[in-house]
Amino acid sequence: MRHAKKGRKLGTDASHTEAMLRSLARALLTNERIKTTETRAKEVRPLVEGIITWGKKGDVHSRRMALAQLGDRELVHKVFADIAPRFAERPGGYTRIMKLGPRKGDAAPMVIIELVD
Hints:
It is a single chain. By secondary structure, the chain is of the alpha+beta class. The relative contact order is 0.18. It is built from four helices and three strands. It starts with 13 loop residues before the first helix and ends with a strand. The protein has a three-stranded antiparallel β-sheet with strand order 1-3-2.
């Protein structure tokens, strides 16, 4: 039973799902636009938006939480110095999901998730 389990399973065990979402979040914050499946994009969106909100706060505790989530000092610095100040006036909704259609091999719905400018 999956009582009190938050989020989608994404066809893997919990540790693999967590690693996959962390990798997607890193890729999105590094490249500012990635192509992935719709369910993965919907799962990574709250993670990325929370990290950007920490970047907007800018305190030491937020930086440490972002570092624990991302595991990359240079990327955390980029979020706090470059990405978060762009969204200083925006109260949320830092990402956009645009649907592309089904993938050729297995007809999985594909999307582009990107940071809003």
